Amino acid sequence: MSDWNGSTALIVVDVQRGFDDHNYWGPRNNPDCEANIGQLINAWRDQGWPIVYVKHNSTTPSSPLAPGGKGNDFKEVVSGTPDLLVEKEVHSAFYGQPDLDAWLTTHGIAGVAICGIQTNMCCETTARMASDLGYDMLFVEDATHTFDILTPTKKVYRAREIARYTSLSLDGEFGRVVRTSDLVDG
């Protein structure tokens, strides 16, 4: 492990089976995302460091992430019991229940390492808010993935480009963008 310690919580955002519905979401980037998330979870667990799982409960009944459907379940890589489970209906994990900020503060946790799905949506929103709340923020770019975006004018923005823009926006201004290997001994 690197020099990170128990005052940095691993925040695993929305790693749910519904994101495997390629007909709904379209092409994605980073096929190694889930393996990297698994490495992070195992490393944090081996050290006894805090782990938070975040689940998106979509309010759109037809969404693959709607409560009650199999798509709402976590993927296999999100195993074991977290120190905290946050459920949300919006982009930021800080607007879920129970209150993530209050839990981190109560436990003396000064930093977060964010991974999960989607890079430019819930992961980025959670990262920006973590920074604004004063946490030392690490964004584990290769432990996130996103999907291509098709605009109303039929222009396609590729997932790899979108992920790159997220990293460029976050690094330095909101915290540090890192890779799994920066946090886990390979």
The side-by-side strand order for the widest beta sheet comes to 3-2-1-4-5-8
| Distance between the ends | 9 Å
What is the succession of H and E elements?
Answer: EHHEEHEHEEEHEH
Task: Sketch the major β-sheet.
Answer: 6 strands, parallel
**Low-pLDDT segments:** none
Helix content: 25-40%
- Cα Rg: 15 Å
CATH architecture: 3-Layer(aba) Sandwich
Q: Helical segment tally?
A: 6
Query: What structural class do helix, strand and pairing data support?
Result: alpha/beta
Q: What's the count of strands? A: 8
Q: Topology of this structure?
A:
Layout: E1 8-13, H1 22-25, H2 33-47, E2 51-56, E3 84-88, H3 100-106, E4 111-117, H4 119-132, E5 136-145, E6 149-150, E7 156-157, H5 159-170, E8 176-178, H6 180-183
Parallel strand pairs: 1-2, 1-4, 2-3, 4-5, 5-8
Antiparallel strand pairs: 6-7
Helix pairs in contact: 4-5
Notes on the structure:
By secondary structure, the protein is an alpha/beta fold. The chain has one domain (about 10-185): Rossmann fold (3-Layer(aba) Sandwich), CATH 3.40.50. It contains six helices and eight strands, in the order E-H-H-E-E-H-E-H-E-E-E-H-E-H. It has helices spanning about 20-25, 35-45, 100-105, 120-130, 160-170, 180-185; strands at about 10-15, 50-55, 85-90, 110-115, 135-145, 150, 155, 175-180. The strands form two sheets. Strands 3-2-1-4-5-8 form a six-stranded parallel beta sheet, with helices on both faces. The mean pLDDT is about 95.
